[in-house]
Write a structure and sequence with these properties.
- By secondary structure, the protein is an alpha+beta fold.
- It has 2 helices and 6 strands.
- A 6-stranded antiparallel beta sheet has the order 1-2-3-4-5-6, with helices on one face.
Length: about 100
């Protein structure tokens, strides 16, 4: 995958997260600056997601630790857990929010 393809795929994934947060009605603030998407919760805890172009990965840092996702078989997959990126983001958001989130 070249750099352009990486950014297109990663940006699409980050936009999906932003849309899902908006639609969920959860009390999660988010801000995208350059290659970094920061999710902030009511208790001021954060999840930081960033694009790592040199490795063609998306990295996620949260209370649970750091996770690296690479694009495999049309999905972003974690090298540590084998979990899919969007599912991991949702799981971590529930941990940070300390309540269920309605992810339609």
């Amino acid at each position: 995958m070249n750099a352009t393809e990486f950014h297109e795929l990663a940006d699409e994934e980050l936009s999906q997260i932003e849309d899902a947060i908006d639609e969920s009605g959860a009390d999660i603030d988010f801000e995208r600056t350059g290659n970094v998407l920061t999710l902030e919760f009511e208790d001021r805890s954060q999840i930081v997601i960033n694009k790592q172009e040199p490795m063609s990965e998306i990295w996620l840092a949260s209370k649970s630790g750091g996770f690296h996702f690479s694009y495999q078989d049309q999905k972003w997959i974690c090298s540590k857990t084998g979990s899919e990126f969007f599912e991991k983001v949702k799981e971590e958001c529930v941990k940070h929010a300390q309540e269920e989130i309605d992810w339609e």
